[in-house]
Each structure stands twice: as C-alpha cells, then as structure tokens.
Amino acid sequence: MYRERIRLLLDIGVLAPIDLYGRGWDRFDNKIIRIIYKGEIELKESVLRNYKYAIIFENSNNEPGGVTEKIFDAMAAGCVPIYWGAPDISKYIPENCFVDYTKFKSNSELIKYLSEVSEI
After folding, report:
1. Rounded distance between C-alpha atoms, residue 115 and residue 46, angstroms
2. Of 5, 24, 47, 76, which has the fewest beta carbons less than 10 angstroms from its beta carbon?
3. DSSP letter string over 94-114?
C-alpha cells in the first residue's frame, strides 16, 4: 500500500496543494515529496483540524476488520478521510462519513471528485 500512497501523493502534488506529515518521508529523493513534506508531528489532531481531507491508507487493504485509529483521528479532527484499508469498513463506519478510495478508477478521477465537492 506504500506504493499507492506515493502514487497518490505525486498525482495530487502536481495538481493541487497538499501537505505531507509523518515519519520517514524525508528519505525520499523526489522533488514533489521534498516540497510537500512538512515533517513529523506529535499531536495529529492539532494538525489535522487545519485540513478538509486526510489521506488514510491502512497498512493492509485485505484484512477484514483491520480498522486502525487513523480514520477515527481524522474524523475527530473534522477531516473527511480518504480511506483505503479494511474491505468491510462500512460495517464500522457509515459510507457517507468518508471517501472510499476504491470507488475511483484513477487518482485523477478522485482529484476531480474532491475538487467538485461543495461545502456543506
């Protein structure tokens, strides 16, 4: 799933503003990653509350029930999660509470969708 994270970050990084936080991203020798990478954070909620969306990719996408705190952290901060992970996520979280990454044929389609979503 790491490759998909990178692919999505690069696709968005070319087309729209995005910030990247987390451990280990500073080791990538990629111009876009270097530009969007903002470093590590201690309190996720203090950073996430500044964003409309948060990319939430679990470490596995084939583990039923494999839902971690990541999606809940984003929701608690008021972000709409762009989620890819547990195939049965809708058993735990209503589908209208997150953007299901698997519903899009390409990253371009996802980016277009996100750009067209109106404020509620």
Report:
1. 24
2. 24
3. -GGGSEEGGG-SSHHHHHHHH
Q: Hey, which bits of 16-94 come out as E strands?
A: 20-21, 37-39, 53-57, 80-84
Task: DSSP letter for 117, please.
Answer: P
Q: What is the C-alpha to C-alpha distance for residues 82 and 54, in angstroms, rounded to an integer?
A: 6
What digits encode the pLDDT tens for the residues 76-118? 999 999 999 999 999 999 999 999 999 999 999 999 999 888 6
Cβ atoms < 10 Å from Cβ of 67: 19
Residues 6+ apart with CB under 8 A from 4: 57, 84
Q: How far apart are the C-alpha atoms of 52 and 42, rounded to whole Å?
A: 20
